[in-house]
Design brief:
single chain; 338 residues; alpha/beta; five-stranded mixed beta sheet; 12 helices; 19% strand; globular; binds 5'-O-[(R)-(carboxyoxy)(hydroxy)phosphoryl]adenosine; binds zinc ion
C-alpha cells in the first residue's frame, strides 16, 4: 500500500445481505464482510422487505466495524465511501445509503453511489486482474438478466434483456415447485448433479425479432405443468431429473446468445455476473463454449457472484477516478436501471 492507493469502504444492503468491504484501487480486496439474512427469510419462503430493513439496521454498525478491523484501518485511512443506491428494496437500500452518507460526512470524504447491477459486473475485476473493457457481459441474477457490452469502465450498452422472468426468479420458482425451498438456485444446482438432464425436454426460448433477448417464463411454466400432470396422474417424478433438465434448458436459452454476441461484435472476452453466475453447470457450459470459439471467459468466484460489498468497492474505484460523487441528498432508487 502507498499514499497514492485509493482506499474505498463500500456498503451493500439492497436485499438480504448486509455487507461492507475495503477495496484498494478497485482490484485489491482487503476485507469482505457479508452478514446474510437467508436463514431468517427461509422461514417465510422468500425475502420479507420489512424484516430485511430491520436486520440491516441491527447489523450495519458491526459489519462496517468488522470490515475496517479486518483491513486494519480506521475511517481516517479511507479516500471515499461507496454505497449501493439501487436497484433493490427501498427500505433495505435506505439503511446503507443513510449510513454511508453519515460516514462520508463525518470524515469529509466523497460519497460514491453505485448501481447494484454494475457492482455485480465489477465483481469480475478483483479476480480477473487482466480484464479490461471492451468485453461482453452476461448479467444473470435474481432480479435481472442482461446481455450488454462494456465499452469502457462504467459504460454499458444493453443489447438484450429478459422479456419476462429473470433467470434467478425462474430458478427460485422451480425450486419451490419441487419442494426445495428458498433460496432455490443453489439447491437446484446441487440436486441437478444427481439428475439426468435429458429426462425431460423443456423448451428453449428463441425470440425471432430480438435474438439477444431472453425469456424464461416458458421453461418455468413447462416444469410446473410437468409436475402438475404427474401429480394428477399419481405418478412419481424424479426431482433431480426435473432440476437437471430445467437447468439444461436455462443454459440452452442463455449460452448461445452470449457467444453469438461476442462473435457478432468481434469481442473475444465474455464475463458473467450475478447470483445465477455461480451456477456450476452454467459456468462449465460457458467455459467450454468459449474455449471452442477462442473467447476468453471470465467469472467471479461463486461467493463474489452473489451479493457482497467488494463488488461495490470495485465499481466505485472507476467512479472515483471520474469524480462521480454524490451530495448528501443521495436517495435510494429501488428501480434504478443499468
Ligand atoms: O445477484 P443476486 O444475489 O441478487 C440479485 O441482485 O438479484 O442473485 C440471487 C439469485 C437468486 O435467484 C438465487 O436463487 C440465484 O441467484 N442463485 C443461483 C445459484 N446461486 C444463487 N441460481 C442458480 N444456481 C446457483 N448456484
Ligand atoms: Zn445482487
Amino acid at each position: 500500500m502507498n499514499d497514492k492507493d485509493i482506499k474505498i469502504l463500500a456498503i451493500e444492503s439492497s436485499c438480504d445481505e448486509t455487507a461492507a468491504s475495503v477495496v484498494i484501487n478497485g482490484r485489491n480486496i482487503i476485507s469482505n464482510v457479508i452478514n446474510s439474512q437467508i436463514k431468517i427469510h427461509t422461514e417465510y419462503g422468500g425475502v420479507v422487505p420489512e424484516i430485511a430493513s430491520r436486520k440491516h439496521m441491527e447489523n450495519i454498525v458491526n459489519v462496517v466495524d468488522e470490515a475496517l478491523k479486518e483491513a486494519d484501518m480506521t475511517l481516517n485511512d479511507l479516500d471515499a465511501i461507496a454505497v449501493t443506491n439501487g436497484p433493490g428494496l427501498v427500505g433495505a437500500l435506505l439503511v446503507g445509503v443513510s449510513f454511508a452518507k453519515t460516514l462520508a460526512w463525518s470524515i469529509n470524504k466523497p460519497l460514491i453511489p453505485v448501481n447494484h447491477i454494475e457492482g455485480h459486473i465489477c465483481a469480475n475485476y478483483p479476480e480477473n486482474k487482466y480484464l479490461e473493457p471492451p468485453f461482453v457481459i452476461l448479467v444473470i441474477s435474481g432480479g435481472h438478466t442482461y446481455l450488454a457490452i462494456c465499452s469502457e469502465y462504467g459504460k454499458y450498452e444493453i443489447v438484450g434483456q429478459t422479456r419476462d422472468d429473470a433467470a434467478g426468479e425462474a430458478f427460485d420458482k422451480v425450486a419451490r415447485a419441487i419442494g426445495l425451498g428458498y433460496p432455490g438456485g443453489p439447491k437446484v444446482d446441487k440436486l441437478s448433479k444427481s439428475g439426468n438432464p435429458d429426462a425431460f425436454d423443456f423448451p428453449i426460448a428463441h425470440i425471432a425479432d430480438a435474438p439477444f433477448d431472453f425469456s424464461y417464463s416458458g421453461v418455468k411454466s413447462a416444469v410446473l405443468n410437468q409436475l402438475n400432470t404427474a401429480k394428477m396422474n399419481g405418478m412419481e417424478i424424479n426431482s433431480a431429473d426435473v432440476a437437471a433438465s430445467f437447468q439444461k434448458a436455462i443454459i440452452g436459452s442463455t449460452v448461445p446468445k452470449a457467444i453469438a454476441l461476442c462473435k457478432e461484435k468481434n469481442i473475444n472476452k465474455l464475463a458473467i455476473a450475478g447470483g445465477v453466475a455461480s451456477n456450476s453447470a452454467l459456468r462449465e457450459a460457458l467455459q467450454s463454449a468459449c474455449d471452442k470459439e477462442g473467447i476468453q471467459f471470465c467469472s467471479p468466484s461463486p461467493v463474489m457472484c452473489t451479493d457482497n460489498a467488494a463488488m461495490i468497492g470495485a465499481a466505485a474505484y472507476y467512479k472515483y477516478l471520474n469524480n462521480e460523487f454524490s451530495g448528501l441528498d443521495l436517495n435510494a432508487i429501488p428501480n434504478l436501471s443499468l
